[in-house]
Please model this.
Amino acid sequence: MVSWLCPYCKNRMFSSWDFREKRLIDCLYCQLAFINPYYRKSSDLQLAKDKSKST
Ligand SMILES: [Zn+2]
Model:
């Protein structure tokens, strides 16, 4: 279970999935989009992989 606190209306949303492939989350209450803190770019994962290889 994950949760998001909307920075606009301060309401909290809950979900069983963190939507890590979505950069923006639409607030259920005020319909505004905010940055998903659980978002993971595939390029970041690739960068971490390259780093571990060189060390
Ligand atoms: Zn909101």
